[in-house]
Amino acid sequence: MLIGSGKPNPRQRGDLFYINYLPDAQFKLTAVLQTFFLAVNQLNSGDGCSLSDPSKRLMFATLNLKAGRRAIDLCDYNSALKLLESGMSLLPDDHWKSEYNLSLQMYRVAVDTACTLNNAAAVTKFSQEILTNVEAPLEKLHALFCVMKCLRTASKIQESQQLSYSILQQLGESLPRERGDSDLLAEIDSMRTKVLNMPDESIINMKESTRKEKDMLLLGLYSNLIVVMNDQNPKRMDDICLRMMEITVVNGLCALSPLSVALFALVLVSTGDIELAYRLGRLALRLTEKANGQRFLSEVAFFVGGCVSWVSEPLQSVAETNLLGYTNGQQVGDVLSALSNYQFYSLAIYLSGKNLKFCRDTSRKVSESLMQRHYLFLYKQAVVVYRQTAAFIGDVEGEEERPGNFPSWDDLMTHPERSANIDFSFYIQAHLYMRIFILTRDFTNLPNEGLLVRLTRKQTPMRPILWVGVFFEGLVSFHLARLLDDSDYYQQGEAALAFISKWRNSCNNKCNFENKYMVLEAMRLDLKDPDQAEDFYLKAVKSSKENRFVHEEGIASELSGDFYHRRGNIAKSYSFYRNAMECYGTWGANAVTQRLKEDVLEKFDSRQIIAQPIEKYISAVGYGEEPISTTRKRAE
């Protein structure tokens, strides 16, 4: 897995008045802090008689600010905000004139804390104070940046984009260009050449920026704008990533520089420069060990794990990177990045074939946490995984152990954001193809336009859920091409096969792509040259088995069973059907197992057939090149 070797932050979250429960190694520190916090708390809960002296009120306000900062260091943001608000209440009425510096510090820390807690009302209140009373332009823009983040987490994507554009223009930045712009392409290539020729240690040991405050604001703004553009206009993401890398290379390192490197790696994945992309992903994680970057490791791991490392690592390893990102985010109090990683982790373990009960329970925990924190833009995606896994298991909606207020599958299918949010629309479509092919086999509500066509048109950066979605689109298309004798569906299947083949060849990642390529090629040949299809069905089963994709071993085995049944080989057909049912059972997909069991009973009636171990059939098959076409065979 792509993860840095830096030591994890030992701080633990918890209530400030129970600090003595922290590890013994921190006892001396926490004993002093406990006394300090208890003293500040006692002052805040006094009767006010001791606070009639203005100088004492200012001293106590300063103590609350100090206590709030210490609380943030301990990742207790709720207590920090209460302490800061207590400090604000002690300031004089004319504090913006008489105590400007103290007021600015107090409100700056408060708006950051409220933003971390995703408390939109508090962010609005504190930022308005700053915008009205503060003179420094960067302080005003930082407050607006916090508002922009809250708009994004509330799924108010267009408002967030408009505000971010306004901030960029005030900072003298150009608005991002769309992919395809000739100057942009040349600049990306120039930056690619520059980092390609820089040894790893040269990147790690770049000079520190002399304008860190502005760089931090710009990089933070751009990193949030990346998420917004992924939902609204993915074609502008490349220019944003390039600009972040330019700021880092030209100005030097700041705490957010590792994120610049990670996001430029995302651009290189899109351009097909896989080796350099993976190298930069590793370097981004190493860079978090410098320049106080450890507190941003969670955000870096989110992008590296979910958008870069899959090019060279198995999905199981990608999941571990996101899990470590989740852990780090919890340790340093980066709640948004922690839960973003947790959501990616729950998706990755599901896509890699981990037991569905574990996946269902994990995605439910993620959904509940996101709903509790009001992170609406991530919440819907987490619920989709929960509903999908529950359906495969055979749970009945509304009868879960802990029902909650999650939207139903039908609600998600008709959610208004399917038309307003590009990324959510793609996400839903990918899961819909899976649900149709694995479980329902109900093709009546297929999207009018295929996922691959839409991804190509929008030029969305690739990540696992999207290429897995294209794989299932290919399965559905080839199945319907056979069922309906429809050439349009055949061409759609061929396009999906070409797409998977491209990534298989460019990534050289057999674990993620080999069995998917094999099964799609088998289905294609089954329609055009069935004599050559058998080896590819067997290769698909063998590859998925070796790479531990138990659910895809089930799919390949079921399709092999269909193939042998059509050719009248009853023994082989039944053997592969039995293996498919065992795989689905191991996966925990009881509803899928039941669907196949009913199909097998219908095909074989009550005939007594002895299933053979499939190893008997797949042991001798290798992974050769694509078969010689029928035309070439005739010519020879």
From TrEMBL:
UniProt xrefs under InterPro entries: Hybrid_Histidine_Kinase, TPR-like_helical_dom_sf
Designated name of the protein: Uncharacterized protein
Source organism (scientific name): Thalassiosira oceanica
Lineage: Eukaryota, Sar, Stramenopiles, Ochrophyta, Bacillariophyta
